[in-house]
Design goal:
This protein is about 5% helix and about 35% strand. It is mainly beta and about 200 residues long. The chain is elongated.
Length: about 200
């Protein structure tokens, strides 16, 4: 699957204290009591940043990289993200409700309890990540791929998963409604987890 990478050339080292507009910058040191609100974050990189001390609200992200960041419980609700990459990030409880995600890569991330509700996914790849007990509800997707993820106890409702290949993922105790089950691709060894969603038991 081909994802368009963030278009980043030259970035200027900066700090949260110095930054007034989040454009063409690179931040690698933490700060407390930072407000990032109503910003267009454009052509930017965050390394090793703990966002638990940062108020992050109502921003748009274009050509952004998060590397080794803690984004737990951050809300990206009602936002637009395009050409954004998350690498080795802690994102427990992150929320993407009513968010538009366009050309997004999430790799080696902790996405436990992540909430994708009324989310639009276009050219999105999630790989080698823990999505245990994440929730997908009424998700619209085109060119969305899940590769080698932990999907244990994940809940998928009212989401078109036709031709979605889950054969490389751990789907133990995954929960589907019947609509979302249609057309998924699995390995034969995973069939008991799918059959259980139909109320059928093996004897």
């Amino acid at each position: 699957m081909k994802i368009i990478c963030p278009k980043i050339n030259y970035l200027c080292d900066t700090t949260f204290e110095e930054c007034t507009e989040y454009q063409n910058g690179y931040i690698k040191s933490n700060a407390d009591n930072v407000l990032i609100e109503n910003q267009t974050i454009d052509t930017f990189r965050f390394d090793n940043i703990d966002f638990s001390n940062i108020t992050f609200n109502n921003n748009s992200l274009i050509d952004v990289i998060f590397n080794n960041c803690d984004l737990s419980n951050i809300s990206f609700d009602d936002e637009y993200l395009t050409r954004v990459e998350f690498h080795n990030c802690k994102m427990t409880g992150v929320s993407f409700i009513n968010t538009k995600l366009d050309n997004i890569l999430l790799e080696n991330c902790m996405l436990k309890y992540a909430n994708f509700c009324d989310t639009d996914l276009y050219n999105v790849l999630i790989k080698n990540s823990n999505m245990e007990e994440a929730r997908f509800m009424n998700v619209k997707q085109k060119n969305f791929s899940l590769e080698n993820n932990n999907l244990k106890k994940m809940e998928i409702i009212d989401t078109n998963m036709n031709m979605m290949d889950l054969s490389s993922c751990d789907i133990e105790s995954i929960k589907f409604d019947h609509k979302s089950l249609k057309g998924i691709i699995i390995d034969i060894s995973q069939s008991p987890y799918i059959v259980s969603n139909l109320g059928i038991k093996f004897k």
